[in-house]
Amino acid sequence: MTSFIAFLVAVAPGALLGFALPPGRYRWVAWAASPALTLGLIAVAMAWLRPLGLPDGAMAVLVAELVLAGAAVALSRLVGRGLVEDADDRPRSLRSRLRLPSVRPRPADIAGLAVPTVIAAGYGWLIVGRLAAPPGWDAMNHGYLSRRILDTGTTAITAACSSGSTDTVTSCEFYPLAVNVAWAQATQLSGGPMSTVMTTWALLVGPFALAAGIYACVRAFGGRPLVAAAAATAPVFVGPMWTSLLSGRITEQAAPCLAGGLALLIALAVRGRHPVRTGLLAGLGGAGIVMTHSYDVLFIGVLAIGLIVGLRERLRWRTVGAAAAAMVIAGIGAIAPLLGTIAGAGGERLTEKPQLLGRWGEAVEFWLTDPQRYILLGFPGPGTADVAPWPLSVRIALWITVACLLASPLALVLRQLRWARPWLAAGLAITLVGIVTISSNAALVQSLAALWYGDPARPWSMIFPIYGVATVAGAVVLGLGLRRLLALLGVRTAALRWPARAVPPVAAIAAAVVLSLALLAAVPSSWHPLRGEVKRRAPVGDSYARAFEWLDAQVQPGQVVAYDRHRQFMTWSYADHGTPLLFGIPPSRTAVAENWEERWRAWRWLVNNADAPPAGCAVRRLDIGYVVVGSANYPGWRAHYRQSRLDRSDRLTLVHRVDGIRIYQVTDAGRVCAGPAG
User: Fold this and answer.
1) Is residue 650 classed exposed, middle or buried when 0-12, 13-18 and 19+ CB atoms within 10 A define those classes?
2) Contact 123, 527 (CB under 8 A)
3) What is the rounded (10 degree) CA torsion for 388, 536, 351, 461?
4) Do residues 226 and 507 touch, judged by C-beta distance below 8 A?
5) Per residue in 514-534, pLDDT tens?
6) Sign of dihedral through CA atoms 582, 59, 133, 525?
7) Alpha carbons 204 and 8: distance in angstroms, whole number
8) Is 170 exposed, middle or buried (0-12, 13-18, 19+ CB in 10 A)?
9) What are the CA-CA distances from residue 572 to residues 253, 374, 443, 606 (Å)?
10) What is the mean pLDDT of residues 70-92?
11) Using CA atoms, how far apart are residues 392 and 414, in angstroms rounded to an integer?
12) Which of 82, 436, 560, 609 has its CA 20 to 30 Å from the CA of residue 574?
């Protein structure tokens, strides 16, 4: 039930806005972009409720979403056509305007959307399912932010982005995100764990948006349902869809999944018959992306340009102007009160130095010729050293994928593959951006790289759908070439005489390639390495839930629990159970660094570190009641205590243990306060 409610919260508000558009492909495209539209509605509420003096908690935002969506639909039905819209589908009577005509999809389209979604959810279950919580350290940050929204009853940065549960200070300038609000809403409505809600986004919401967006794009360009379904399925296992979860960035996985639907909505606004209504929705969706994973706007914009160029509708400059104005008004107006905050988030925009400065050959290798970029599931990623030998299934899949990718550029000249051109063009453009930003330290280039902190893996994950779509396009090219070769050789096969109403042989070849890759990816030796890395970065087993439930029952009002921050996954005790914790979001400004350091002084004192000065006064002021440690450690994170010294500490006493998790209670010796220094 928790997963169902999380999916409904993510899709339903945005889907309501689809009724602001007429039946047919406009409404279908809006529904394909519904998660992005939901995030846009959340962004509006986050930005405007507080300045208007209205409640801005999670449920208040949800009510505002539904009210805004309902008002938009009602207004679209009541207002007649605009100055730049066609009138052929506008009813005249008030009753007919308010009526919402039913829309019945074709069975082939239902199957073409359902199959990729189910396949994606299945692979997600293999890789990240069955865990106690999502993998990655950043997932714990976002779980903390989302729980703070529930505890404080507001989406304000000053409340959510704090240093801890007591004596809080504002620790950053940009968070929470729109998706944090969606997670808080689903958690409050369902009563389930925050971790389950967040995992639902990785397993269901993102894959649904990916399948719907790509399928809609291919169908809008005349692609057959089978080819569209193949293109929507391939990115699940061709490309790094799941590797972004290793660091816990569910937003980094979700935003590229939203790209196809939103880009097509933008293209239809510019070249369609309803530029104002469609443009307003497109601008709203863009605002939702900015408030979720801002730099993906770059990829969405480039893809949208390609779709605009490729659509066959007549280009009218009056329509272009109306659509552009509508998108700008909706996009900027939606988040106007937050624009200064977004632009000034300096701490969150620190950029790493270019990793391959001046080494253009290595940059091209990293972005184009490294075979690890094209292996199944994108793991291990390009540039990774000391890679174990690939199993046969991965090597076979690599040969198939590379052959298709090498053939895919011919889609730029083949009429049957016009649906692939925008995706290939967008992939080429972002690849060039990636090569330049990893190699050059020019001011303008690094200003662009600052959008993703200079991390070269992020633009790779930003365009991950490209790899699957291009592979399917290459499969179609190879199929066309094979058919042409057989025809030149005079071979008369049953495939060449296939009836027009049957599945075309080229579409069948594309589906066969995708099916082959899917089966190869399903071989245990193909996905076990990624699954193993995911498990290393996630809490595994029910011992966490049992320990957290016991701890939550013992903590007294006002007390907090100290732990070695994210290193042993203890942050989930707060995200899932609401147990107040000592550590929250580390500060990005030196002005509040002392508050953060005081928490670490209290921790070092309690765990009996050798160099720890007395900090009993800090323990009292922060009201630390318990210390919890575990045996499972996040890889690469340095420990801030030694178990042997902790066991000898008279400042703590062991009161409960669940498997490898130990819970200590603070003693009077740990709270002794000799004076201001202690």
Assistant:
1) exposed
2) yes
3) 70
4) yes
5) 999 999 999 999 999 999 999
6) negative
7) 11
8) buried
9) 21, 34, 40, 22
10) 66
11) 33
12) 609
